[in-house]
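Lab notes, practical 5.
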Amino acid sequence: MPMASLEETPPLSPVLLLGMAARPLPPAVVEAVLRQALRRVQAGHPEVFARLRPLGDTAFLIDPVDVPFKAVVRPGAQPPALCVVRDDQPAPAAAVVISGALATLTDLLQGRADGDALFFSRDLAIEGDTEAALTLRNALDGADIDVFEIMLAVLGPLAGPARRLARPGRTLLRGLRDDMGRVQAALTAPLARRCAAQAAELAALEDQVGELRRRLHQRPARTRSG
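Output from the prediction step:
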């Protein structure tokens, strides 16, 4: 069953641009990186996977709307399993589908954001097995999984240089994200105003139609009374 809704248009952000640049990558390359990251998460946070074990082979489709790949994860399997496909290709069947911007999904994985706020907001779209989705949320809530450090570890010998570049890189990305958010807001504001005006006009027309129907229903009653 659907638990939340999500705007279909991905946010204008550096991640969206990087995702477009990453489209030529084979899914197998992305899958290999994510599998290493999954193994490191399992090694560093066994308690999370212990809470997920009752899910068994329940599959979760994770769909970052601003990245050209999606992943199917079975976190309760022994061992946990993961596969990656392109966003325009059919994915294996999943009991739960979770869609959202990569930054939002990362916040969910890290367990640092308010799980309830994410799960019941417009930032995520969650469909399928409600109980399984809540089990995942509860397992991740407060887990404090450091995605940045895990991805650095996956880089191996490149982790040191990447860490030195991370601080200025994060500052740059944060500035770009804010700037691109303002650009997106400026581009969509006129459309939002037109939609609001049209909604108001439609509401007024519905009121007029309702009033006409009321008068039509009343007219025969007055004729009979005369």
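Observations recorded by the TA: Strands lie at 60-64, 69-74, 81-86, 96-100, 124-128. Helices lie at 14-22, 27-44, 46-52, 102-110, 115-119, 130-140, 147-154, 159-225.
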